[in-house]
Design goal:
Layout: H1 4-18, E1 22-23, E2 25-28, H2 40-47, E3 50-58, E4 61-66, E5 70-75, E6 81-85, E7 97-102, E8 108-112, E9 119-124, H3 128-132, H4 145-151, H5 158-163, H6 173-183, H7 196-215, E10 256-260, E11 263-267
The structure holds a DNA duplex (16 and 16 nucleotides).
DNA sequence: AGTACGCCCTGGCCGC
DNA sequence: TGCGGCCAGGGCGTAC
């Protein structure tokens, strides 16, 4: 569910609500969510009575910088949600609420995740680049056509390339399909077959589609909601994702669905060239 | 070392 | 109404 635009939306919401606030205690009800990098007891100990200095995003990870040199990190997997809970915006702690981050005045951040693919862990700031192991942020100034072009040096299908977090951080299955439609590139096209012009089109499409996704506050197809529990609007703007056998908005040809790298892939067989 | 696939889970939807 | 089968936006471990 949550790709860069969704995590960015949640980050902006939580930043407003929790920056400068102290974590009284974290409760972890499902150990498997805390299986990576450190165990659940360590997470509890290293976050207790720590103040949240900053909230940031890196790829699809959400980062809470603490007043120690530690960072509390969440990944939402497929169905994860982070809900800010207060007197004004109460949320029920249900069977899918695996983590409760308790703040003062009965405020809380709830982590819900029906499919349990999410993760939580605490690492030191110095371990960040090592433990997350991500490619560049596609919306940052540091990401350029030249950098993108230099990474397109392998015969991997371009769709798989876009999904590889070590290449570019934050693109998931939905935005990958939308980006390739925007760029007019067939998802099976080998990455190293793109010429400079095609790489430029891909670069522009990555920026445009992700920026529009953030502007629309993300895509809500099933589980995704922001930190207030509200749905995004980007699903209404999709041109290929989830539109198999419906007409292409550009040429009218029926959109096709196939499977690439085990993921459902939607494309216009006429507009998108191999 | 790079790439492809099965698998981790649960819920929703479709067809019988 | 019930149930089996299939689908799902992510990432990892394993096998080449």
């Amino acid at each position: 569910m949550p790709e860069l635009p969704e995590v960015e939306t949640i980050k902006r919401d939580l930043k407003k609500h929790v920056t400068g606030k102290m974590i009284s205690r974290i409760e972890i009800n499902l150990p498997r969510i805390a299986r990576k990098h450190c165990n659940q007891d360590e997470i509890v100990i290293r976050t207790e009575r720590r103040t949240i200095k900053e909230v940031k995003r890196r790829g699809k990870f959400l980062l809470f910088y603490l007043d120690s040199s530690d960072i509390l990190i969440f990944h939402l997997g497929m169905t994860g949600q982070l809900l800010f809970c207060s007197i004004d915006s109460p949320f029920e702690i249900d069977k899918y609420t695996h983590i409760v981050v308790r703040l003062k005045d009965n405020e809380k951040i709830l982590f819900r995740d029906p499919r349990q693919f999410g993760q939580v862990f605490v690492i030191n700031q110095e371990e960040l680049s090592d433990k997350l192991d991500l490619g560049p942020e596609p919306l940052s100034d540091g990401f350029t056509v030249e950098i993108l072009y230099s990474m397109l040096n392998r015969p991997t299908k371009i769709k798989s390339f876009l999904l590889d977090q070590k290449k570019i951080a934050g693109i998931g299955n939905i935005y990958a399909d939308e980006i390739l439609f925007e760029a007019g590139l067939h998802p099976i096209k080998p990455a190293n077959s793109l010429n400079k012009g095609e790489a430029t089109r891909l670069f522009v499409a990555i920026r445009n589609v992700l920026t529009e996704g953030v502007k629309q506050r993300g895509t809500s197809i099933s589980d995704y909601v922001d930190a207030s529990g509200k749905k995004g609007n980007m699903q209404n703007k999709h041109r290929v994702y989830g539109r198999a056998e419906k007409p292409c908005p550009r040429c009218g040809t029926n959109i096709k669905r196939t499977v690439i790298g085990g993921r459902g892939t939607h494309f216009c067989p006429r507009c998108q060239k191999t």
